[in-house]
Amino acid sequence: MKASVLAPIAALSRLFDSVNDCREFKCPTGTTFDAKQIVELRDHVLGNRGSDGVINLNDSGQPFLYYKFKRKTFNQTRYSYTIKVSIAEEWVMVYEERNGFINYCTLQQVPKPPSN
Known about the structure:
By secondary structure, the protein is of the alpha+beta class. The chain has helices spanning 9-17, 35-49, and strands at residues 5-6, 31-32, 53-57, 65-73, 78-84, 90-98, 101-110.
């Protein structure tokens, strides 16, 4: 089985920029992401779009995962995002921005409540 290759964020960011707003974006087949790259791509998308976006990530042959970035602004420099990966998986990200640079960022998985 071929080893998966981590996505080149700069190239994907440029590709995403070429897609119209509110359109679906598909990463190349075989692309996988780690948490740091999700942060980087999310930063790029929201930094340049300033709105919610949906990114369709193909995880090496697995079904597509939809990352929906929901923006919540606390104030001018602090932001919170919910990343809805699937029905069962959700991440929360909070970051602070100063002078256009991110100086604080956390990414935590939200535990799925047990079903009865």
